[in-house]
What does this fold into?
Amino acid sequence: MNQTLSTKLLAVFPIAVFACLFAYLSIESSTFLSLGTFELILKQAVPTVIVSLGLAAVVIAGGDDVVAGGIDLSIPATAIICAAIIADQLTNQGNTLVFAMTLAFGAAAIIGAINAFLVVGLRMTPLLATLSMSVAVVGLTKVITSSRRIGVTDESIVFIRDGKIMGVAASVILTAVLVVIFYHALHRTRWGMNMQATGGSRDAAEISGILTRRFVVQSFLIAAFAGWIASVFVLARGSGSSPGTEENMLLEMVLATFLGAAFSPRRVVTLWGAVLGAVVVSALSVGFISIGVNVFWTGCIKGALILLVVASAAVATKGRS
Amino acid sequence: MTLQSIFARFGLVIIIVMFFSFFSYISPVFLTFDNQVNIVEASAIVLILALGMTLVVAMGGIDLSIGIAFDFGAAFAVVALKDFGAAWYIACLVGVMGGALVGLLNAFLIVILKISPFMATLGTFFVGSSVERVFTNGGGPISYRRMPQEYRDLAVGDVFGIPTEVVIAAVVCLVYFIALERSIFGKRIHAIGLQKDAANVAGIPVRRYMFIAFILASATCAIGGLIGSANIRMFTPLAGFSYLLDAIAAVFIGAAIHPKGRPNVIGTMVGVLFLGMIGNGLNLMGLDFNLKAALSGLILVGALALAVAQQRLR
It folds into this structure.
């Protein structure tokens, strides 16, 4: 009895930690618990949410062992190179947004295809394949931008930055729509179920007649697609493409996605978890700034919190099995 | 012998030779003795970090925080020299201890709290880089231009004409070779990497070995930090991060050369020298900085893909 109680406590521990933290933040800061802050948190979270959707798809199809299972570290790099291509086409070459986006889509598709080939064709460790792809893509981005900032003043991009749909920030609405589409595809369709099965147990899925290799390939293409979509929001947030933004995004993406797993009852990576994780990470940043914590400490606090949550999840899983 | 079996056995070696010949053909300077020494010298620090990584990967883990260990090694040593006027060898010792602290945190997270190495060392990376920022008030370097000559010599001195950093890297390499490839300790580390549960059943104190290995790896990376800080006479926060990918890549290229595809010390050394050669050769070709970044990235992907393809054909 005692055992089960402590297991139950451990299960809600991650959520409890963050609930306490947010309660503290709202008491300390008069502005934290307001609609404006909430919108700011969501707006800040947007690009991370989208790339986390992509990563969640890869993890769902590849399994959640971080080294041997599915992981795609090249999504932020994909977003950055797409942003660079779009910015370069719009500002330097004077092409239309549609043309620029199509070109960027092609680039993203190639990156996704190479990732899929390396992982499925050559059976390379996803971690290694996508990490090295990320480096190559960041290098190519430097060639496109000459490591310079390229400003963008296109109307549609500015609308995504400043516009509102029914009184809510356009970027938040668009992202919400995207989340719903992803959720429906991955959690509510036969195709999505097959993909979940592939990640859950590759062998069992194979025996049931699921073409597992195809689903893993598709997951990497989805990830590249998410990178492509995210690039528009990256452009909007920075009013153009800036060099060196991918590292922070990479860390936030991995954090958000695996933090999300700690929130889920079965401790697996889910789409909702990834979205929630991204919002929580963003809320922490905004919250700490609003109570005036030294900005250099926030990384440390974030890191420690995440370790705390992941550790409690690890202990809880052990307790149940 | 079919073409396929030749590729399976020597694929990566052929590529290395091809690049070597290509650079020799393109640049008259590449083949000179001085330039070859340059390559080896420039690879010394990467080799030391990659060896730490080899130990962790051989044990079935991964360490994303080697850069932090590198930085802590540099920071502890420079502060010991500057603020406490420590002798150079004391500073070295303090630096290595600083690095070991990072390993201690990793070991605690992974062995005691049972967090996966990837997440644990990523967390260490976050916490460590934040601590570095706070300590340096935002990321400014701690410079100490009047450091003792003995400490400075770690990077610029020489032993019987051989650059000191190469000698240090060679010694670390030898120690790692004996420890990992020629001792019971190494056999057990490899056993843990191959089959952790089996190793446990076979009576290997898995947890103790993992604990020690993570600390050893970080302490090794701190040695790289000592050389780095001696070279530029300062501690630069977050400088170690740039070595992470090269270290990982070298370990996996090295594993591809191994007959059984295991991470190993000699392979890592070959991998590090290969990456060093590419960097050096692209520099000599006088390419634009941005183009060089793109090319070395593409070559890295190609080399790793080839290394893995080669393993699969066996």
